[in-house]
């Protein structure tokens, strides 16, 4: 079951898009207080070659995701470094697996994965936002790390969502 519903994602996207710079800074402060590891996973990206203009993209993704998490109806625990690392390992293992699969099957696998993903609306938002900024083709290492950080954020939300809903 999806933690961040379509309605929650739409509401969060609209709210963040309407925020002033000061309101976004206040939201980032809230993220720092409640989900510091998620914020750190984005703010570290310049060390991997992501320039400040590109950094705006994953920051926006994090702001919208966090705003959605606030509206989802659950008190979400802080996502730990261990959860982030486990999700990143699964994500990279999946990506490596697709490298050995014929391209026509990869497309089918990606489509099925997106449809069946526990956080499909967040995933769709992330892919859409990255696509709008031409960051899905991964032409540089910086773009690869940016893409991984955004997709790992989705995987972390899916992980904690599954744990919350299992209780």
Brief overview:
This protein has helices spanning 6-18, 21-34, 36-43, 52-71, 81-99, 103-116, 120-132, 141-166.
Give the secondary structure arrangement, pairings included.
Elements: H1 6-18, H2 21-34, H3 36-43, H4 52-71, H5 81-99, H6 103-116, H7 120-132, H8 141-166
Helix pairs in contact: 1-4, 2-3, 3-4, 4-7, 4-8, 5-8, 7-8
What distinguishing features does this structure have?
mainly alpha, globular
Explained architecture:
The protein is mainly α. It is built from eight helices and no strands. Helix 2 (21-34) packs across helix 3 and helix 3 (36-43) runs antiparallel to helix 4 (52-71). The longest helix has 26 residues, at 141-166. The two termini are 13 Å apart. The model has no long low-confidence stretch (mean pLDDT 92).
- Quaternary state reads single chain
DSSP helix count?
8
The stretches of 5 or more residues where confidence is low (pLDDT under 50) are none
Describe the sheet with the most strands: none
The percent range for strand residues is under 5%
Total beta strand runs? 0
Q: What would you report as the Rg, rounded to the nearest angstrom?
A: 15 Å
The mean pLDDT is 92
Helix content: over 70%
Structural class: mainly alpha
Basic shape:
globular
What is the first-to-last residue Cα distance? 13 Å
Query: What is the string of SSEs from the N terminus onward?
Result: HHHHHHHH
């Amino acid at each position: 079951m999806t933690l961040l519903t379509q309605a929650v994602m739409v509401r969060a996207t609209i709210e963040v898009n309407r925020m002033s710079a000061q309101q976004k800074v206040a939201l980032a402060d809230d993220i720092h207080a409640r989900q510091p590891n998620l914020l750190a996973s984005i703010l570290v990206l310049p060390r991997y070659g992501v320039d400040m203009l590109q950094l705006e993209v994953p920051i926006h993704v994090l702001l919208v995701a966090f705003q959605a998490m606030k509206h989802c109806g659950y008190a979400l625990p802080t996502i730990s470094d261990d959860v982030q690392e486990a999700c990143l390992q699964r994500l990279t293992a999946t990506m490596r697996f697709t490298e050995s699969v014929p391209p026509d099957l990869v497309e089918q696998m990606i489509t099925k994965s997106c449809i069946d993903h526990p956080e499909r609306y967040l995933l769709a938002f992330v892919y859409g936002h990255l696509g709008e900024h031409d960051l899905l083709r991964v032409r540089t290492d910086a773009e690869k790390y940016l893409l991984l950080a955004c997709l790992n954020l989705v995987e972390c939300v899916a992980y904690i969502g599954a744990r919350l809903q299992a209780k």
